[in-house]
């Protein structure tokens, strides 16, 4: 920023940097602590100290967690949910946003109003649960996908994006005999890849982080997702989960603390992995959202 | 005057519509609108087909529950279904407002709302202002990237980390011990500290991401304004007060309005995941109260508390938007 460099301003700048650095460190410390514990031996985990990095790092805990049969099942369930959910999400969002983006579409204003109003008022938890129940979607993956698949907010963002595609382009495709579906899939969507990519990423993160709907809709442990497993392992300490990991098939002794820490990292892992690469798309997405009509 | 002298345009065209004849005039009004409507449908029939599946899913899950809200006024029994259940009017609401459990949750909710707006709402703004003053772009970028990260994890992950960190033998106490403050507080089991921890934890997770939109607004401010101010001798504080803050006011107001709709459900994720039986009395909010109704199969009361929440949220948004518009009609959500 432009400004006169006098002593007062310099002092401020120094304090600002120091303050932000400490803020950053404080923000990171719980994560670092967690990582450190997950890599520690049980003995070291119990010691007093700062736990930035263990003196005797070990991957025992990770091995224990990885070898537990349940976690692979939950990982798989969550991956399934994320992939199917994101595809369904993009398909449904596009199929609603595209017609609404055409100025001559009948009842366009009314439908848009319905969308906006649903963002301001909702039926609430119990009525939604009853709907899912009455549609016999309880305990299925669809209960985790459909209720959130057509989010009004995303429809509007996508609609605005599609609106910028000139009608002439579409009309000339129609003259060539293309059906609307073909136009949507072959022309409109490819042209909207920036917006679609951001929405797809958000959707994927959202489905990966699903915990609440799985908590209320999924009854079978075999269909459960990763976040609920994590919740029960670390937060509610339902030991029926940990029990599996503590089985003495291999002579490795790990305390629950190191196990818990490793489990947390396991769940965080995919997001940590892709974060550096896709981070800027998410940031751009915020901009997209702020152009909402 | 004779018939032939009258201007003929009034007789022959009548209304300029399909046909352009007298017969066309008879088809004006509702019948014409209906046939125009049908024609519009036919012209867009492919688009309508494409729209239908998503629209149905949307209507079922966004408006279906609104219809189900009627059970808030009934004594819902699963066997009777929505229609068969007995109508009880405001009985469920009377129950709510007589219930110490609900009133406690309501009270906590209001306290959390105040805390959130006092601390959590301004935090990203302050952070954005501070980041904006940085000259070292690399540091700024690195810091930003790091600060966004907590936003991408679920509150299950964040709460798990906090449970480990704030345990009596956890990271925080270890750190305090290392600098000479010996304590074995079990931070998350202390009712008195719960609200503070929730707010701080919430800021921890959201401040980085929240600052993005304010940083964008800040970078849109014309640097010429600052130059002019500097020439006039304005110090940094002066510049912030008279240029920066007023320039980002519109964004702040929009963010404020958008958040007001969630008025009574603020913080459900973090509160539910951080709550333990010992902290339930100070942590319970209406949303967690409603969730317990679900688990307890107490559907009617749960629907009533949910309706209460949604109604208040809607009212708050409408009122706030009115207030904003009265102040400056260009701003506001609609």
Give a structural overview.
The complex is a heterodimer of chains A (293) and B (334). Chain A has 293 residues and is an all-alpha fold. Chain A is built from 15 helices and no strands. Chain A has helices at residues 7-38, 42-46, 60-67, 69-101, 108-120, 125-134, 142-149, 152-163, 167-175, 180-191, 193-208, 212-217, 226-235, 239-245, 256-290. In chain A, helix 1 packs across helix 15 (256-290). The two termini of chain A are 32 Å apart. With 334 residues, chain B is an all-alpha fold. Chain B has 18 helices and two strands. Chain B has helices at 9-12, 22-26, 30-43, 45-68, 81-84, 91-98, 100-120, 122-132, 137-148, 155-165, 171-178, 191-219, 223-231, 236-260, 268-274, 280-283, 286-295, 299-327; strands at residues 74-75, 86-87. Chain B has a two-stranded antiparallel ribbon. In chain B, helix 10 (155-165) packs parallel to helix 15. The longest helix of chain B is centred in the middle third of the chain and has 29 residues, at 191-219. Chain B is globular, with a radius of gyration of 30 Å. The chains are: A mainly alpha (293), B mainly alpha (334). The interface between A and B is large, with 95 and 95 residues.
Task: Give structural attributes.
heterodimer, A: 293 residues, mainly alpha, B: 334 residues, two-stranded antiparallel ribbon, 18 helices
Brief summary:
The complex is a heterodimer of chains A (293) and B (334). Chain A is mostly helical.
Topology:
The complex is a heterodimer of chains A (293) and B (334).
Chain A: H1 7-38, H2 42-46, H3 60-67, H4 69-101, H5 108-120, H6 125-134, H7 142-149, H8 152-163, H9 167-175, H10 180-191, H11 193-208, H12 212-217, H13 226-235, H14 239-245, H15 256-290
Helix pairs in contact in A: 1-15, 3-15, 4-7, 4-8, 4-11, 5-8, 11-15, 13-15
Chain B: H1 9-12, H2 22-26, H3 30-43, H4 45-68, E1 74-75, H5 81-84, E2 86-87, H6 91-98, H7 100-120, H8 122-132, H9 137-148, H10 155-165, H11 171-178, H12 191-219, H13 223-231, H14 236-260, H15 268-274, H16 280-283, H17 286-295, H18 299-327
Antiparallel strand pairs in B: 1-2
Helix pairs in contact in B: 6-18, 7-12, 7-17, 8-12, 9-12, 10-15, 12-14, 14-18, 17-18
